[in-house]
Amino acid sequence: MNIPLSFDPWNAVPGSVAALSESPFWHPLEARLYWVDIAGRALLRWRPGDAQVERWDMPSEPGCIAPARAGGVAAGLVVALRDRICHAAAWGGALREVARLPVDAASQRANDGKCDALGRLWVGTVHEPASGPRQPVAGLYCVDLRSASESSVRLMLDGVATANGLAWSPDGDRMYWSDTPAHAIRVWDCDARLEPVGAPREFHAFVHKPAGWQPGMAGYGGRPDGATVDAEGNYWCAMYEGARVLQFSPDGVLLAELAVPVQCPTMPCLGGPSDDTWLFVSSARHGRLVEEIARLPASGQMLYRASDVKGLPVQWCEIGV
User: What pairs with residue 215 in β-bridges?
Assistant: First the structure.
């Protein structure tokens, strides 16, 4: 029987080694953790106490995943694949395309995504050129599936290289996101209809990677990847290549820094069974050096530890019936 591996104070979900784990959320009805392996082209889920992770292979890279609801009733999952949004009524069931992202699938794909309080799925894309560095040609989209007859996909922001870090304040009056290569977290004020107002402003900026820096060296704290907001409105951000998760106040003040036993954490998530709260952190090993993985064997696994900080319930993706 597999048991969680200990990287004190962190544990690793048994059997969770993946290429690029992302988009974890805690399903309150199933008491399960769901997430994706982007590079491994799979959806994953795990219930505490289970000896193994369940895996569902996808036809292309899944950027993000959310629980679906129709007419107030749980209705499976919504997943953003490379250039399309699909709905599955049940785990392992048929994938039904419900929306298409207006991107060139040869050079862009869906990346980070979450739902707002209205049940709209916000999806950021990432530029993945065949060669050379990523360019600011990706965008942030709002996908509305609430109508049974027609979905809508709106481009809300363009000019980004990698849209990441999506999260909302508890009352929905601000939306956070990050452009990872730009090493910056932005915040967008929202009106009573949860529509962004004006232009995003800078929430926090980080020092760019110095020339010649290598993992294990000092002088670089990573760049902002996936994120979550806790019940007090604080913003938690995984620092890719920084081996840490940061907690910021709503005013942008750094409150806490948690070291993680991986070089590349990708997204934090607060959840857990019954009254317990755990901090989950997904991570990556795809494209990393063999020496780094040998030094940090938890790379690519889903990590978790006890937490005294409460999270916000996951927002459902509302779909038309």
Answer: none
Ramachandran assignment for 228, one of left (phi > 0), alpha (psi -120 to 50 degrees), beta (any other): beta
225 is catalytic: yes
SS3 content of the chain, % helix, strand, coil (to 5): 5, 50, 50
Distance, first Cα to last Cα, the chain: 42
pLDDT score at 112: 95
230 DSSP 8-state letter: B
Q: Tokens representing 102?
A: 């207006």
Is the overall model pTM greater than 0.85, yes or no?
yes
Alpha helices in the chain (DSSP H): 290-295
CA angle 194, 121, 249 (to 5 degrees): 55
Q: What residue segments make up the domains of the chain, in order of their start?
A: 5-318
- Residue-level pLDDT at 3: 47
Rounded Cα distance, 302 and 39, in Å: 15
Q: 5-318 has which CATH code?
A: 2.120.10.30
pLDDT in tens, 83-138: 999 999 999 999 999 999 999 999 999 999 999 999 999 999 999 988 888 889 99
Catalytic residue, chosen from 225, 230, 251, 276, is 225
Cβ contact 218:207 at 8 Å: no
